[in-house]
């Protein structure tokens, strides 16, 4: 175990694994092995910011990208997928941005995952598998995936916001008013 926390994911509570002679973060390795996308992590964090700040001021995509330390080109398609899934509402214009389309208690994490999956490129041709793989292996992973999605469905955005409160992290997700100022240059 490493002391001082992980420099790759900024978490202090987990350790390291040695994979192929390289030191890897346990959290990142587990997520990768389970097929959990970085996009899902980013979307959930974005939803928390929007849940805490969207009522007062819609959060713009560029502002969210800056807060989350991701490129706007990376984040925008993810947010648009949530708009299409009616999880977020998008408002255009100088005072525009993203707000929740529904109450926190009506947005579950399985919906977020499924909305995110529609982003995947249709140009990707599915790989060909053997008959044994299609008969045995794929149903096994389909069952595991179903259990994973079912488990995510147990958590709503309201539950996550309650976890944020319990961990005393609400101030982490509040965007200061001076950060929300939008200038109007019309004459």
Helix content: 40-55%
Count of structural domains? 1
- Describe the global form: globular
CATH superfamily: Winged helix-like DNA-binding domain superfamily/Winged helix DNA-binding domain
What would CATH call the architecture? Orthogonal Bundle
What do we call the CATH topology? Arc Repressor Mutant, subunit A
| Side-by-side strand order of the widest sheet | 1-2
Structural class by SSE content: mainly alpha
Provide a count of the helices.
Answer: 8
The radius of gyration over CA amounts to: 19 Å
Unreliable stretches:
1-5, 178-187
Order of helices and strands: EEHHHHEEHHHH
Main beta-sheet strand count, sense and barrel state: 2 strands, antiparallel
CATH class: Mainly Alpha
Number of strands: 4
DSSP strand (E) fraction? Answer: 5-15%
Tell me the distance between the termini. Answer: 60 Å
Average residue-wise pLDDT: 78
